[in-house]
């Protein structure tokens, strides 16, 4: 949706949100795609927060301003809804920015997804938090599960989990102590652990996937040491 500005040659503003969501699980109180709204006004639906909550705010803001008779700004404003953000944006914004159509929009400033606000305040912050998928393959000595085998993958997994939790706790403490928000710190969570084939055999390999969301204050290699040593 485009609102042409009074000076349309100026670089334009893009208000971006994505429409797709991550997959659903089977334990929803209400159908994840029903958009069910209960008596308190709480909306249940995949993507209600991430990130239709922001897309709807863009639309509501313009509706309110239009009702007040404000219908044009100096710069052209593009309200963009894109697909495939959760899967890497190849057929979404990542592909769109390479197109001629995108270049023609002459975008000078973009406001996109940020952290959700739990207050009636729309938090705006600048800076780019980087999402990093950390895949760790832990190898160790395998053998029969009835023995005291040394240097197992499980021992290393314990260290990885300990280091991850230590980093996570430090960041959380930093946020709470200085009254910061999620936008100011780096989060780190172990989200997938896979390993083992038989109940009586020590696993030779364990795969761990972590999600790190934050700023590269440290080099990737030193971060690797931080969680793996
Ligand atoms: Zn999102």
UniProtKB/TrEMBL annotation:
One Pfam family matching this protein: M20_dimer
Keywords of this entry: Hydrolase
Native organism taxonomy: Eukaryota, Metazoa, Ecdysozoa, Nematoda, Chromadorea
Organism expressing this protein natively: Caenorhabditis remanei (Caenorhabditis vulgaris)
Family under the similarity heading: Belongs to the peptidase M20A family.
SUPFAM superfamilies for this protein: Bacterial exopeptidase dimerisation domain (SSF55031), Zn-dependent exopeptidases (SSF53187)
UniProt xrefs under PANTHER family: AMINOACYLASE-1 (PTHR45892)
PROSITE patterns membership: ARGE_DAPE_CPG2_1 (PS00758), ARGE_DAPE_CPG2_2 (PS00759)
Span of domain Peptidase M20 dimerisation: 127-207
Domain of life: Eukaryota
Name the record gives this protein: Peptidase M20 dimerisation domain-containing protein
């Amino acid at each position: 949706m485009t609102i042409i500005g009074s000076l349309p040659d100026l670089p334009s503003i893009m208000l971006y949100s994505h429409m797709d969501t991550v997959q659903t699980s089977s334990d929803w109180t209400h159908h994840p795609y029903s958009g069910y709204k209960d008596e308190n006004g709480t909306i249940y639906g995949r993507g209600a927060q991430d990130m239709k909550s922001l897309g709807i705010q863009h639309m509501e803001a313009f509706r309110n301003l239009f009702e007040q008779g404000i219908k044009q700004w100096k710069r052209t404003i593009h309200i963009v809804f894109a697909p495939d953000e959760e899967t890497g944006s190849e057929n979404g914004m990542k592909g769109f920015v390479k197109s001629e159509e995108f270049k023609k929009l002459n975008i000078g400033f973009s406001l996109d997804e940020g952290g959700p606000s739990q207050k009636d305040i729309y938090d705006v912050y600048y800076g780019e938090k980087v999402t990093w998928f950390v895949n760790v393959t832990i190898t160790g000595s395998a053998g029969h599960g009835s023995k005291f085998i040394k240097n197992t993958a499980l021992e290393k997994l314990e260290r990885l989990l300990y280091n991850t939790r230590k980093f996570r706790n430090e960041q959380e403490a930093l946020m709470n102590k200085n009254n910061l928000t999620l936008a100011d710190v780096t989060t780190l969570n172990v989200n997938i652990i896979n390993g083992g084939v038989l109940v009586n055999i020590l696993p030779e390999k364990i795969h761990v996937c972590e999600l790190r969301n934050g700023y590269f204050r440290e080099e990737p290699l030193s971060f690797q040491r931080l969680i793996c040593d």
